[in-house]
Amino acid sequence: MKNVFSLLLFCFCWSAAAQQFEDTNAIEVNVLRGNVLPHSPELYHLITGHPEGVMISFSKKTHGKQAWQSLYNYPDYGGYFLYEDFKNEILGKNYAIGAHYNFYFLDRMLMLKIAQGIAMTTHPYDKDTNSKNRAFGSKYMGNTNFMLNFKKDHIVDGFGLEAGFFFTHFSNGRFKSPNSGINTYGIHLGINYDFDKKPKFAVLDSLGATMKFTEPVKFNLVLRSGFNESPIIGSGQKPFYHFGFYADKRINRKSALQAGIDLFATTSIKEFIKYRSIAYPDDHLDPNTDYKRVGFFIGHELFINRISIETQLGYYIYRPFEMDRPIYDRLGIKYYWYKNVYSALSVKTHGFLAEALELGIGIRI
Questions:
Q1: 326: helix, coil or strand?
Q2: Are 331 and 314 in contact (CB under 8 A)?
Q3: What is the dihedral of CA 246, 251, 254, 259, to 10 degrees?
Q4: In sequence order, which residues have a C-beta less than 8 Å from that of residue 254 and are 6 or more positions away?
Q5: Strands 353-364 vs 159-171: parallel, antiparallel or unpaired
Q6: Cα distance between the two ends of the chain
Q7: Is the pLDDT of residue 327 over 90?
């Protein structure tokens, strides 16, 4: 009887402890004000004021219910809504929704927000009514945000304050031309509110975080595809096929380093070469010039449970038709459905100029 009572007491205590570290809910409201980053000559006439906006974030705050949460210092995750007024009648206003992660540093006084979503603009390019808008070639596009905050929670009950710097990016990944995109940067000030009492944090992975993590080199094969348009407005969307083969090496439980080769078969470039050969005969461009490109890249992958964030920097080692800069970069997010199978969403750019919004599937063996 004593053993039964002890077992019941243990179960009760374990259940209470698990409930104590359940995810809790919070909201942040930030007011933004900043400047447009003029990364293209097509944007200078659009910079007539200081963009302003509001970002509202709804978050689940983690407290150690799962082991990976303590490894990343108990991040937040959730959804956001962004409104931005560019203070320009040509650009109009943008609205965006998406998902975010908040990562904490310096005794949780410093917070980094990474957010990705979809956006809608009120004033897209139109050849008849808004031909000067070379930033947004389509009504719908992608949105990426970074925020670095100094944050203090629970100053008065559940209310806290935060302030810092932000960077926002809007682009349709050249799904439709024109597509210079818009980048804004500036400062923000906000309040936050926790709907639950000031929580305690579980320490479930303190030993695992310090253990040496070893894993052999893994090889990845990934296919990324989608549609984009050449710089010629109205030329139409054409499919692209981007093949990647690379090796990665986990250096710890969070990170892996990458190196590999990309093959780009972007058919909109094929059409663009034909157009250039006819429209600019003095360039003596052969219409049969190979449109394919090969690039060598290095990268980094940050693993967060089943999700990972991927950044890559590449250089074209084969490029018969020189259309963009020789250096390209890729920022993406991956989701591991199984240990070795993943899907991916990424944007490939040349500096701040997007070339393609890529949907991908890959294997890691």
A1: coil
A2: no
A3: -20
A4: 71, 72, 302, 303
A5: unpaired
A6: 52
A7: yes
Quick count: other Cβ atoms within 10 Å of Cβ 223? 15
* pLDDT band, residue 12 (cuts 50/70/90): very low
At residue 22, the pLDDT reads: 82
Q: Beta strand pairing status for 307-318 and 327-336?
A: antiparallel
Length in residues, the chain: 365
The Cα 25–Cα 57 span in angstroms is 11
CA nearest 224: which of 355, 117, 345?
Answer: 345
Q: Which residue has the tokens 């082991």?
A: 67
Of 176, 149, 146, 32, nearest to 94 (Cα)? 32
Tokens representing 97? Answer: 């929704």
pLDDT score, position 23: 87
Alpha carbons within 13 angstroms on the beta-carbon side of residue 223 total 5
Query: What pLDDT band is residue 296 in, cutting at 50, 70 and 90?
Result: very high
- Encoded tokens for 136: 């947004």
Nearest to 32 by CA among 87, 75, 78: 87
Nearest to 36 by CA among 46, 21, 22, 24: 46
**Tens digits of residue pLDDT in 162-186:** 999 999 999 998 899 988 889 999 9
Residue holding tokens 């090969």? 294
